[in-house]
Amino acid sequence: MSEDRILLVAHGHPTVSRGGAEMVAKLLFDEYRARGLDATLLARSSAPSHGGTAFSAGHSLRELSFHTSMSDYFVFRSADARHVFKDFRELLLRLRPTVVHFHHYLHLGIELIHEARRTLPDAKIVLTLHEYLLLCHHQGQMVKTKSYELCYRSAPDDCARCFPERSAADFFLRKRYFEAFLEDVDAFIAPSRFLLERYVEWGIPAERIRFIEYGQPKREPLPPRELAAGETRNRFAYFGQINRFKGVLVLLEAWQRLSAKEKKRIQLEIHGSTLLGHDPAFDEVLRRKLDELDGEVKYFGPYESRELRGLMAEIDWVIVPSTWWENSPVVIEEALGNGRPILCSDIGGMAEKVRDGLDGHHFAVGNAAALATLMAKVSRGNEAWDELRSRMGPPPALAHTADQQLELYRTARS
Amino acid sequence: MNLAEARRTLRSFGSPRKLHAHIDYWGSFQGDELLIAGWVHDLGATLELELWADGSEVALTSLTIVRGSRPDVTARYGGEPDARIGFVLRADLAQSLRSDAELTLRVHGSQGEAELGLTATAREKGEKFTASIRGYADRDRQAAIRLATSVLGVGAIDLGSVRLNVERAFLVGTRGVFLQGWLFDPEASLKGLRVRVANASSEDVLLELGRLPRPDVDRAIDVRLGAGGDWGFVCFAPVQAPAGSAHAELLIETRAAVISVPVDLLPLSRDAVRLSTDLLSPVDPSGARVVELLEAHIAPAIEAGYQPAPPAPGEVEVYRFGQLPASPKRSLVIPLFGRADFMLYQLNELARDPDLAETEIVYVIDDPRLTEHALGFARTLHELLEIPLMLVDTGRNRGFAGAINLGAAQSSGRYLVLLNSDVLPKERGWLDRLERELEALPDAGLVGPRLLFHDGTVQHDGIAFRRDPTWPTLWLNDHPGKGIPAHLVRGPRVERVPAVTAACAVIARAFFQELGGLDEGYIVGDYEDSDLCLRAAARGRASYVVRDVTLYHLERQSQSLAGSGSWRTMVTLYNAWRHGRRWASEIEASVRARRT
User: Fold this and answer.
1) Which pLDDT score is estimated for B111?
2) Do A94 and B481 touch (CB under 8 A)?
3) Which helix (H) or strand (E) holds B41?
4) Fewer Cβ within 10 Å of end Cβ, chain B: N or C?
5) Is the pLDDT of residue B215 over 80?
6) How far is B456 from chain A (nearest CA, A)?
7) CB A199 within 8 A of CB A154
8) How many CA atoms lie within 13 Å of A375's alpha carbon, on the beta-carbon side?
9) Does B138 map to a domain?
10) CB-based contact A88:A115 (threshold 8 Å)
């Protein structure tokens, strides 16, 4: 068994913040603990702490909160340097982890990576990359700012065109700044091959980055939903956080393109919500659209991750219509684990994780007409669904992911 | 030129020519004063100006214009370099404008017209004002600055290009005057500044003023001619003043004369919170020169003005509930501040403790707002829990040190347990265990337990000292391990530490008295505990933390020292400064010893 003392650093705890990266860090932590490993999770919290301390034990004495924030989202600077050189250092010196596995620097400060290296020269430092934030100042989406077109290249001149208030030199500085911190990282983890290639193209040496999938705890797929007499596989659902890159508007537009007859036959459910106040303009557009479709499309709002399996039991298809590349959407792994075929955009991490014709079907990204046609086609009978169900693979196993990561801790450059 | 004159000017007839014109700077102050600087390329003598807001003309109560040369403009559009085509105007409006009103200045000159929008890009950019008047002849420039500064605050003393505004002046005992305000003197033309009270006058303090940034003054008008300055100041001017003086004079020395300006003196409060609010709150704790300001002005004023007074006869009231032990082994002295309901939880634990029989419990009400509430708890709880109690009402807020000293004086136990009301025992028998450690350690002066937050992270594990890059010359009290899970904060079961917190500490009464109790010169409450420990150490008696005795401390302080600028942070800095001045060499020795 591993003798490592592992510190996992995440930018949020899933009880408070429902993003995929937070969930993945917590799943991994639980897996390590279930194996009896000496693991500690340090999750950033935006709430104030007791007595003004940097840390508290909000969830358990091994699941600590880090009450800190950033001052500069361009280069992910810590808002309080004391939290880095004093508090985080003190925690490292007391905990003496042999592995510091960062699941993020966002909200925490990228300086933490260097602090870990400086304080613990012999520790293995690992960074899992969850999106393209280092490459792309546009929320790490690799999507153009004004047109929301897909972006294929991170380069100072291109980036400056997305942000006229900044110069190409600013983006050059940004990249140099990051590169210096990344030198302290012994190994990077890319949860998708697509993301891996993007980062290698950007400049991370290929020998220091490994493809390791997120992984799901082992469980049996759900039985197929029981159909009423004459009913077909006609229930489609969207699950997850909603923002303008998630393609929910494409999905709603696809719904509007269905014929009246098809609309009677097909059900569409939306589960999830937008981050309040994050993008009010989009919220308004979405709200109007949902109001317009009230009584046709069922909008359920946010859900707890423990409720997801129950919700998936009631539907047939999971739709992942994102208009950005994605990395490795957790909802795809969950759909695979629950035995629910997937319809997804034909790009990036989605196209990679959903094998076309085996785990589900692809449609042209952003193309509502194509999605409408696909929904109508696959729900006409039950054969399409039954065939996919018999072929679809299980999601990557969390146990396997944990094995691979523990192995990486052992072999990573020191 | 005033409004009437401007109105009296003639308009040219015929189709007006469009003039070259530009607004460099404009600002809107207190909603009804506008300051605008720019130029109109009109070589004639007269200008008529109208201000329009959202399409209708704005009524003005006064309009003052200063004109000056703009060689940069005439170089481009023609005319003599000294043609006074530049303008600075102050317009006082008959009524306030909406902050988002769309403003237009219409100019009718001898040679044509112009319509100028007051755009966001020119708004309140002081450097643009400076640039706008750079080409003016000296006289015009001074007049422009005078006009500009005339929109700054009511009550400022106008001395040509200099404006001085003493916002508050406090009489500090009989020892001097503490001034707070701003002095705008971009050309350093003032020669001296003294304070006179009755017949005595201070030394010249002009060069001693403790300068600090005043963003509000900057915002009102950010006129930086050459080297900019921090226009704000605080200043302690020592002067022999008769007690109770209510008036003083500022003696302002200019090139030409010494001008005397009367100021009213405010009395400095006896209350530490109010006094420190008055003296400390003008200063931003994250400012670059905060320690210099403390040292040169604020600390001398606090020390000259703050005398913790012994209670007046009848001011302190003592209430006893139940049969207190005749010669208790120990007295718990527990100040109450802010809330009294902690008594409910604390007494519930103490009542069940086997050590209760030999324990005298003394709550010190250090907050007049709490008296009724605390008495209410005492009346019912001593019956319900069969727990004898003493309440000492201090009559006013005396700070932590004052409250502890008063409570200690009323109590009689052989040991004193200094205790916060939000410290909750985790297990029973803790008092006896701490006392036995104190007895067993031959050189111990004080012992304290390990304290935990409610979530099991460390709140206190002994105090150490550290420097912070924000205030590199100060020694701050540090709390190693604070916020970190207790199992990660390891150390010997009993360890000598530089100091322990007074949130929970045991000391022999005789020794506490020998040391003279807690020093009430620290404001509100911190650093008096480490001060006590350092005084004990000076007599060869050390402080120890006992790690296998743990209690909870539900520390309420929600802002860390690093938090946003605040009076509370300034109080901490003052106390740290005072503590460091007294103990610097001991602290340095302790830090060296811990490093090795």
Assistant:
1) 85
2) yes
3) none
4) C
5) no
6) 7
7) no
8) 34
9) no
10) yes
Q: Model confidence at B157, in pLDDT bands (50, 70, 90)?
A: low
Residues 37-66 on A with a CB inside 8 Å of B are: 48-58, 61-62, 64
A43: chain B residues, CB-CB within 8 Å: none
Which residues from B are below 8 Å from A82, CB to CB? 468, 562
By the CB < 8 Å criterion, does B286 face chain A? no
Please, are residues B399 and B522 in contact by the beta-carbon 8 Å criterion? yes
Same domain, yes or no, for B398 and B344? yes
Is B142 contained in some domain?
no
User: Does B483 contact A94 at a Cβ distance shorter than 8 Å?
Assistant: no
Domain check: are B244 and B357 in the same one? Answer: no
The answer to whether residue B222 sits within a structural domain is yes
**Strand, helix or coil for residue A108:** coil
Note whether A357 contacts B: Cβ–Cβ < 8 A: no
Q: Cβ of B559 under 8 Å from any chain A Cβ?
A: yes
Whether residue B369 sits in one domain with residue B251:
no
Domain span at residue B51 reads: 3-125
ipTM above 0.90, yes or no: no
The percent of residues in chain B predicted with pLDDT above 90, rounded, is 56
Q: Are residues B429 and B543 both part of a single domain?
A: yes
Q: Which residue has the tokens 């600013």?
A: A170
* Chain A contact present for B481, CB below 8 A: yes
Q: Is residue B275 part of a domain?
A: no
Does the beta-carbon distance from A64 to B485 stay under 8 Å? yes
Statement to judge: residues B185 and B332 lie in one domain: no
Structurally, chain B folds into a number of domains equal to 3
Question: What is the Cα gyration radius of chain A?
Answer: 22
Beta strands in B189-341 (DSSP E): 192-197, 200-201, 210-212, 232-238, 247-253, 258-264, 266-267, 317-321, 330-336
Tens of pLDDT, residues A285-325: 999 999 999 989 999 999 988 899 999 999 999 999 999 99
Taking a C-beta distance cutoff of 8 angstroms, is the pair A179, A199 a contact? no
Closest chain B residue to the Cα of A53, Cα to Cα: B483
> What is the structure's pLDDT at B4?
45
- A80/B562 Cβ within 8 A: yes
